[in-house]
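Figure 6 in text form: structure in, sequence out.
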């Protein structure tokens, strides 16, 4: 081989030598690793050694952490401290393990809120919230701090926690160098400009080059097609694969939309093959045959992920060799050694383990943390070949794969089904391609009817993932800022936030839009040929009619609901009823009427398909009538499958048939107000105009644009100094409630308590302590009430929240009363309302604190209509523990509530809740 291809030229060798002499620490650091640094890593490290702060934006898996680890190296070389922060405990634990392996446990510490290991060490890994709390407490641990690494700094866009990152950046001393590590964002320069403004000299290093190229594909039926083939000669853009377009067109013809099935255009039965999407087992098998495993298959549903694993396991799909199965068993045994044997059955341990042995797993927020961490380790080791995951896997943990599969391009956001954005698509597919292992990564979209390859191409080609600040002042932040800096300086600090920086920039664009809209409004008005004001009054009449019709519909719904509730209250044990629609449609027999004097009736029933559970008003669109009676034993044991089977069989043998659904008649036709409005509309001079509708369309456009313009003007007015004004409103409320002094410039004794409560419902927690609402509660009772400030039911949950009777119920009612008073004050001060306490976790955490088994806790939740997985139970329990320990630390163990909080946290820290914690 020609030596010129491997040896640098004399000039290059000289330049490299000069660079080594200029950056001696980087030279030493690079010598410790076994690979050559990429250009962006070199630029980031050089900027750090030059004394600058650094922001590094690069794709997932590109190796951003090298720059963060160099900050650790520099701190050790300079005899200073380095704090390495991450957004989640699992990442902190992972990074702690990496650094201990490299530098030893004497030099490295870990702080994650509930874990403290060697907190005074020279290098400390911590969650970002821990650093924020240190800064507010002016902890001596900050002495000699030289570097702070903010890993995953793009988390500052997170709606609930993002403010923490900005608080840290704003409050760190000027002499501390900040290293921000971020995923690729399209406004990195804007973020960098803000960092320069608030932190001084900061170098922005952006690298959009993926270390492993990504190939895009679509799976149509059982065939895998490339999304792109070459580039267009005229534009240089990627060209869609014509074979893919033909395949999709053909598959689309085979698919018949639901509303058209059964009959053709002339009423004849439709013939021809029907399109059948590939099963999840077939998808995995196809990837395996193409050599595209390991893979992450994103399914935007926890239940969907679990069902996919079950399907693959039952199909007999085996992706692991006998030797790999032995390795899996060893790791699973090590990872789950802390789990109580009595809980394994209810945790679904054996089914989960069987999937792992076959190389198949699920990964979602409902999994037990120990299960999730085991899946992560096995996947990284190549012992799990396919993971069915929700989009939460796209954040944080390092789990790259050869292939990423998207089952759908639509996900449910808790309120509606929405299309994936280009940013979300980029984030999800960013997992594909393992550096140093794969030559290329692969992204596969499974074709579904209605999916256009052009839509996929648009998602794959667009690289827009802007970072948007979620920063806004809160009560805890306000008292801490006033306590540290005084009100005037605190206002200045808020004005320096990234949120205000972005808001002020947006005003320029809004002003231009207002000018363009004003010009367009003149054009719309000129286009109307009739009397503009008459047209406007006619449109107003139409709007009133529409609003009246909607109001009547609402009244109708309320009346129907009241009559339905009355009919449910009359039901008795043994009544046979018909559930008209939904998953439980069909005959059912009432086991218990479920009448509650304080709430709507929720009858407990067994259906003809053996389901047992409670029904609610939402299951009955019209009043319900008993269709017959069924003799039942005095005591019905619903937990027995045989009992449910016998009842369902008796129900089917009654010969009763569900009646046809009844329609509820509307009162709109008999409403005098609506009749009068319709008469006025017919008598209006515009009503008989020949070109009425054409003119009205212009007036409607005018109205919509005028409203939009007013909204924009309000936005401009509200945007300028918006955070400082919100801070002033918070201060006024805190002064009224005695947390700040009359001047609003000093913190009271109550304010000192609030300053140490870090919770979404911080002020409500402080009020409950201050008003002695939680005094006298036993530890388990306190855990139940405190959980209402932490827990938030999933938005699709329909379960009714209940609390234990006695002291818990009384304290809960008082907590809700304080919340109601607080929300009234917040409305008066034009502040976002504090989230309503949610009692959905009170019973489970109460049972657990009293020592009941996990099986009993989860089964009881299920009987009450709650969907509570073991993973959710552990996650919420740990959050309750966190708030309880804050209350203990704020009040002290000698205080009645502080002592009860400490005991409650100890009672909760057992079994699966304590398992796996460092």
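Output sequence:
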């Amino acid at each position: 081989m020609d030596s010129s291809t491997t040896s640098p030229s004399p000039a290059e060798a000289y330049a490299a030598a000069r660079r080594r002499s200029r950056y001696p620490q980087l030279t030493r650091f690079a010598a410790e690793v076994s690979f050559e640094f990429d250009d962006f890593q070199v630029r980031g490290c050089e900027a750090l050694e030059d004394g600058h702060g650094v922001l590094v934006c690069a794709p997932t898996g590109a190796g951003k952490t090298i720059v963060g680890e160099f900050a650790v190296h520099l701190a050790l070389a300079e005899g200073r401290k380095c704090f390495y922060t991450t957004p989640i405990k699992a990442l902190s634990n992972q990074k702690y393990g990496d650094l201990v392996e490299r530098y030893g446990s004497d030099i490295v510490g870990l702080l994650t809120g509930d874990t403290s290991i060697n907190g005074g060490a020279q290098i400390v890994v911590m969650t970002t919230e821990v650093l924020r709390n240190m800064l507010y407490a002016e902890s001596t641990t900050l002495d000699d701090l030289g570097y702070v690494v903010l890993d995953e700094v793009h988390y500052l866009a997170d709606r609930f926690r993002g403010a923490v990152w900005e608080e840290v950046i704003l409050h760190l001393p000027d002499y501390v160098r900040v290293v921000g590590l971020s995923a690729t964002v399209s406004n990195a320069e804007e973020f960098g400009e803000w960092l320069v403004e608030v932190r001084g000299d900061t170098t922005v290093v952006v690298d959009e080059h993926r270390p492993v190229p990504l190939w895009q594909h679509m799976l149509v039926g059982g065939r895998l097609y490339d999304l792109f083939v070459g580039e267009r000669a005229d534009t240089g853009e990627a060209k869609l694969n014509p074979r893919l377009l033909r395949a999709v067109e053909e598959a689309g013809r085979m698919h018949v939309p639901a509303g058209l099935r059964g009959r053709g255009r002339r009423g004849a039965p439709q013939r021809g093959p029907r399109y059948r999407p590939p099963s999840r087992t077939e998808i995995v098998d196809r990837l395996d045959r193409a050599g595209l495993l390991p893979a992450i298959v994103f399914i935007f549903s926890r239940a969907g992920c679990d069902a996919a694993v079950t399907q693959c396991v039952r199909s007999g799909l085996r992706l692991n060799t006998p030797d790999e199965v032995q390795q899996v068993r060893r790791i699973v045994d090590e990872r789950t050694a802390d789990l109580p044997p009595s809980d394994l059955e209810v945790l679904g341990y054996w089914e989960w383990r069987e999937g792992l042995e076959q190389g198949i797993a699920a990964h979602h927020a409902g999994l037990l943390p120990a299960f999730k961490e085991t899946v992560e380790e096995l996947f990284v080791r190549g012992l799990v070949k396919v993971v069915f995951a929700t989009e939460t896997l796209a954040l944080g943990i390092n789990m790259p794969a050869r292939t990423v599969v998207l089952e759908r391009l639509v996900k449910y956001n808790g309120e509606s089904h929405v299309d994936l954005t280009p940013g979300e698509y980029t984030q999800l597919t960013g997992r594909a391609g393992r550096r140093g292992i794969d030559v290329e990564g692969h992204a596969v979209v499974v074709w579904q009817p209605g999916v256009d390859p052009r839509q996929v191409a648009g998602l794959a080609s667009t690289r827009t993932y802007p970072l948007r600040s979620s920063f806004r002042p809160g009560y805890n932040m306000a008292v801490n800022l006033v306590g540290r800096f005084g009100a005037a300086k605190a206002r200045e600090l808020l004005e320096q936030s990234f949120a205000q920086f972005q808001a002020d920039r947006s005003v320029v664009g809004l002003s231009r839009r207002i000018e363009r809209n004003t010009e367009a409004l003149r054009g719309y008005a000129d286009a109307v040929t009739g009397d503009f004001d008459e047209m406007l009054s006619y449109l107003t009449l139409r709007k009133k009619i529409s609003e009246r019709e909607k109001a009547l519909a609402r009244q109708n719904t309320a009346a129907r609901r009241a009559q339905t509730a009355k009919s449910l209250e009359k039901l008795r044990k043994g009544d046979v009823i018909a559930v008209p629609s939904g998953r439980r449609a069909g005959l059912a027999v009432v086991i218990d009427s479920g009448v509650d004097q304080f709430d709507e009736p929720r009858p407990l029933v067994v259906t003809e398909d053996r389901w047992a559970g409670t029904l609610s008003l939402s299951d009955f669109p019209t009043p319900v009538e008993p269709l017959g009676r069924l003799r039942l034993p005095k005591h019905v044991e619903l937990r027995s499958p045989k009992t449910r089977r016998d009842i369902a069989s008796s129900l089917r043998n009654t010969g009763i048939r569900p009646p046809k659904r009844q329609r509820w008649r509307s009162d709109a036709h008999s409403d005098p107000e609506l009749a009068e409005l319709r008469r006025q509309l017919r008598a209006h001079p515009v009503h008989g105009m020949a070109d009425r509708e054409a003119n009205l369309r212009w007036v409607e456009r005018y109205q919509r644009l005028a409203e939009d313009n007013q909204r924009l003007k309000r936005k401009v007015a509200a945007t300028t100094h918006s955070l400082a004004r919100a801070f002033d409103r918070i201060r006024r409320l805190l002064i009224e409630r005695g947390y700040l002094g009359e001047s609003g410039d000093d913190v009271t004794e109550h304010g000192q308590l609030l300053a140490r409560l870090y919770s979404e419902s911080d002020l409500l927690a402080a009020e409950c302590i201050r008003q002695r609402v939680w005094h006298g509660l036993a530890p388990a009772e306190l855990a139940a009430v405190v959980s209402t400030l932490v827990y938030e039911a999933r938005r699709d949950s329909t379960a009714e929240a209940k609390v234990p009777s006695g002291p818990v119920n009384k304290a809960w009612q008082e907590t809700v009363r304080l919340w109601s008073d607080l929300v009234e004050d917040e409305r008066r001060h034009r502040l976002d309302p504090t989230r309503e306490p949610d009692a959905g976790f009170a019973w489970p955490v109460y049972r657990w604190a009293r020592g009941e088994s996990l099986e009993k806790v989860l089964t009881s939740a299920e009987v009450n209509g709650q969907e509570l997985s073991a993973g959710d139970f552990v996650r919420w329990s740990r959050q309750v523990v966190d708030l309880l320990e804050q209350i203990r630390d704020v009040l002290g163990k000698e205080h009645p509530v502080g002592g009860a909080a400490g005991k409650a946290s100890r009672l909760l820290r057992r079994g699966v809740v304590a398992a796996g914690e460092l």
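Caption detail: The radius of gyration is 32 Å.
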